[in-house]
Amino acid sequence: MLTRIDHIGIACFDLDATVEFYRATYGFEVHHSEVNEEQGVREAMLRINGTSDGGASYLQLLEPTREDSAVGKWLAKNGEGVHHIAFGTADVDGDAADIREKGVRVLYDEPRTGSMGSRITFLHPKDCHGVLTELVTSAPVESPEH
Ligand code: MC0
């Protein structure tokens, strides 16, 4: 079951300048940043709020690391802007299977690694009224040692 908006992915040409815009304009700080070579992105996660299921919602700023990546191709065609939305779920495998049965193209046979050790998959935008849609199961939160 999809229980929250995990993040909104925003494609940008210059990650550092875009991070600075969100900090200076809204006061959002970088919660986490990483490079995901498989996806071809350098990204910054800005945490907007926590949710009652222990998750959170983020803005995800994405700069391509190569022109032939999904974000690189999209930027060249559309310029900067909202690239995808991501719904959070405790069970990305189960939800992806259910959605595939409804005739929506799920882009990966098995979920891949996303931000902060999450497991992610994508739904084809042409099957989702023009919206590239991601499903995310966050990495388990490590319990503190006693
Ligand atoms: C492409 N299209 C989109 C779109 N990207 N429509 C809405 N939103 C998008 N973001 C449309 C194009 O305009 C085109 O429509 C059609 O889909 C085919 O696009 P294409 O330019 O020919 O590109 P393809 O087919 O090679 O690839 C599109 C596809 C790809 C969605 C399959 O971008 C993909 O695999 N995306 C999933 C991975 C991804 O986006 N990774 C980056 C974020 P027309 O009408 O012109 O035919 S990584 C991430 O977010 C991770 C790190 C995380 O969250 O943790």
| Span between termini | 32 Å
| CATH second-level architecture | Roll
Structural classification? alpha+beta
Task: Provide the low-confidence segments as ranges.
Answer: none
Strand order of the largest sheet: 2-3-4-1-5-8-7-6
User: How many helices in DSSP terms?
Assistant: 3
The number of domains is 1
Helix content: 10-25%
Helix-strand pattern? EHEEEHEHEEE
Within the CATH hierarchy, at the fold level, what is the topology?
2,3-Dihydroxybiphenyl 1,2-Dioxygenase, domain 1
CATH superfamily: 2,3-Dihydroxybiphenyl 1,2-Dioxygenase, domain 1
| CA radius of gyration | 15 Å
Strand content: 35-45%
Number of strands: 8
Small-molecule binders here are:
(S)-Methylmalonyl-Coenzyme A
Query: Which CATH first-tier class would you pick?
Result: Alpha Beta
What does the main sheet amount to? 8 strands, mixed
What characteristic shape results from the CA principal axes?
Answer: globular
Average pLDDT confidence is: 96
What does this structure look like?
The chain is α+β, with helices and mostly antiparallel strands and 146 residues long. It has 3 helices and 8 strands. The chain is globular and about 40 Å long. 29% of the residues are buried. (S)-Methylmalonyl-Coenzyme A is lined by residues 9, 36, 39, 41, 43, 60, 62, 70-71, 73-74, 83-84, 86, 107, 114-115, 118, 120, 122, 124-126, 130, 132, 134.
